[in-house]
Amino acid sequence: MRNDAELLDHILEHVDNGTTDLGDEEWFEPVENYASQARCDAERRLMRRLPIPFCPVAALPGPGSYVARNLAGVPIVVVRDQQGTIRAFRNACRHRGMQLADGTGCTKIFRCKYHGWAYRLDGRLEYVPHEHGFPDLDKDSNGLVPVHSVDIQSGLVFVTQDEPVGLGALESLQDLLTDDQVIFESEEKVEETNWKLTAEGTLEGYHIKPTHPQSFFPYGYDNLNVVEMQGPNSRVCYPFRRIEKLRDAPRENLCLDRMVTLVNRIFPFTSVTRLAQHYAVSFAEPESPTRTRYFNYRLTLPTVDGNGPSDDALARAKKDVAFLSDTGDKEDAKVVSDIQAAIGSGANTHYRFGRFESAIGHLHKNLAVYLARLQSHEGNVPRAEHRAASEETLIDTRLA
Ligand code: FES
Ligand SMILES: [Fe+2]
Asked: Is the whole model's pTM more than 0.85, yes or no?
């Protein structure tokens, strides 16, 4: 990925020439891949066998803080233990399977609400009421069941539930969040749409003028983006017009904060977006081909001194959120729900993504590669056929 000075020069080149970044060719994605239950099931199985971002590290500020939610349909709890280590367990009691944690919070111990079995933050089974009723119980081997692995990278907690089929996003991850960024808002919401339609809407600037004529376009450009890939991940840069003021700025230590929107797609389900005055992090949990649950967080910008945000910065961040929710977010959501409603129209067998939309082709291409890998690990999993402009683009041999 380019640093901010390189990014600026590349953007100014596009401004001067009226150009934008172009992929090599078009990508055609079968509409069936948005609609079929078999495909959705395969994506969810893949989700269990890749490192998947679960929450920002900032959501676990101190010992005992936890986040519990479903990941690929499996209840998982992530917790920071007394020593500060972040751990992830299947959120199910070893007695009769009750979930131990709900949502977010902070606790000293996970006590089951059903019969009161209690587990330490490192998962050890600590206490069983009336223990003499379980003469064969070995407490040491009945702790909470951990996931395959937990990785902390770029300010995100990655959870790999089962034996992974590859490194996924961790093949090569860009810098994302820093330690001084603070969560100032979080929400869980359900959209009656396929997760890929929403992701696609964030990965190209070809739609900015027609879809966002009054909201984003007056501050930005028509179809001017920098598109970068790193492993299966990508980053799409949307410059603001005010960036042209930096034409003569010294390039040393140049910072493009407030001059660009940067959408990072963390393969495949997560986005980390650096906006003008805050960061938005969105974790998608596909529940069906037509239903996606989102766990969204808003964080303050990194600070120059690393000491956390001032009151002013926080107020600006909240104003930024209010502007987006009133305008661009609604415009994007309307497009996605309209496409979803027309998905069964029979008009298209494939959706067509042009050379401006190469980050979307990159997402689909890598998803196809990883699903093929999953299939070879599992045996026989049904998969829709792809049609690429050339066969070479279908399988990236570096990943296969
Ligand atoms: S299910 Fe948890 S104590 Fe019984
Ligand atoms: Fe949009």
From this structure: yes
